[in-house]
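Figure-free illustration: sequence to structure, shown twice.
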Amino acid sequence: MWKSPWLKRAVLAVSLLPLAVLAYKWYNHQLGFNSIEFVARYLGRWTLILLLTTLAITPLRKIRALSPLILFRRMLGLVTFLYATLHGLHYYVRDIQWNPQIIVDDLTHRRFFILGMLAWLLMLPLAATSFDAAIRWMGGKRWRLLHKLVYVSAIAAIVHFLLQGKGIDLRPLEYAAVLAVLLLSRVVLAVFPKPQRPAVGATR
């Protein structure tokens, strides 16, 4: 069941469903009074949700019954990058309309935008190497080391959310708590690795 191509397609469809909902709202003029802010928040929120979901696969796959979840991690990581890219493009294309003066000011003086760009830039090499040929070319050890940058990207993305400074919003703290649990789980797994099962027929 886990290796069924239909299951992977279903997971992909579910992960893209928020984009379909956004398109529906746009087509039916349901984005609210400030449509630019609505879309920015919507895409940013789903980027974080998918990013944390992708990160959660690593500890969850240590549970034997859930180990096949690893089959979906790469795909969900790429979908997360898609959402992050759309989130950034929406700001630069629709909000500031590629105004070079604003772009320079944002990326040199405003921590909110600097951290957002940092989070995206750290995702870029991960997305670019998310294929089998890259793993063979880099070697598994270096590839895994590079892909640990996703945790730095997640931290930058959550701080980016925290710095938006528009009213009281507990969701960034909720995302930060989830990320803290995921980071702690990685530490626990590193300190207390799962014991290897003896091979069948091994001498006792």
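We now fold a second protein in the same way, so the two outputs can be compared directly.
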Amino acid sequence: MATAEVKNFDSPDEVRPFEGKGQAKMVQLAGHAVGKGTFEPGWKWSENVKPIAGTDSCQAAHFGYVLSGKMKIFMDDGSEVEVVAGDVVAIPPGHDAEVPGDEACVMVDFGEIGDYAKRG
């Protein structure tokens, strides 16, 4: 019989710091990774995660909820979208992103992020 699992981002299984400007707190539940990312003002995937990922653009599929702030997403095909607090987002692989303004973007991500910003 399966048992219920409960975890809290105040005691994450792992914290993955970005190259400056934020971090992702990770928990593992029922074989799935869930992350709470704090992306500080001025954060850019191409500057703060690309050195960790080693790819030209983000290859993770994100499925999440924006708790606060905003983020601009730049798809490899040239399209752009901005997400703000209260938005539910599905972002396919092949993108860059940045946090404009002076407020951090905080997002909970239930997507395919098991290796997102994971070193080594």
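Summary for the second example: The radius of gyration is 14 Å.
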